[in-house]
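INFO  loader      accepted 1 record
INFO  loader      residues=250
INFO  predictor   begin
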Amino acid sequence: MTPPLFEIRDLHAATVEGGIEILRGVNLTVHAGEVHALMGPNGSGKSTLANVLLGSPEYEVTSGSIHFRGEDITEWPADVRGTAGMFLAFQYPQEIPGVSVINFLRQALSARKGIDLSVLELRLAIMEWMERLEMDPSFGERYLNEGFSGGEKKRNEILQMAILEPDMAILDETDSGLDIDALRVVATGVQEVRKDRTEMGVLAITHYQRLLDELQPDHVHVLIDGKIVESGDMQLAVDLEHNGYERFGV
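INFO  predictor   done
INFO  writer      dumping tokens
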């Protein structure tokens, strides 16, 4: 029997500094091609979960495990998870002065593929994806996220996801700070990538139903106080939009 693409088993995690427990037993299973959404109020542990899943050194897994394509990756460092086929779109992408978008992508893709790619080899693929994502071709020469608007930063994250061809993508509040038009562009970009990578799993972490209206997830989960307390379909997201989290004691 084929194992799930991605599986979180009774995951507990705490901050390295201070040992504050934030995740208190998260369970989640993503099969190939599925889109999952994780919702929850501020302080519920959503971004902590995203960072733990990508191996952030700021957090320590105290018990439980993370599995990717059947392998226990709980102890894998972030770079190994990335080259293995996991991707995290950050809520607040970092600026890297002096490093162009195209050079950053060349280095990242070379590490992912295990071969040293030239800029020329990469340029054609980037130009194709920039057209599909409705991005200005000059974007590739700009320094990574330096002077980018919020929408440009998020669109750049989607470009990275397209070029790096991950098997599992984790989107950490990709809709944060975006107006409805920019959000639609990002959501459309995710769907464009999924057209080419139909087996890619997606975990979209968000506060808002509006992103999910565009992505139409297969499963929606509610994270409260470091635990998933309810799972359902898109109707669950609609209910949360209208009624909030009061019934969960928040």
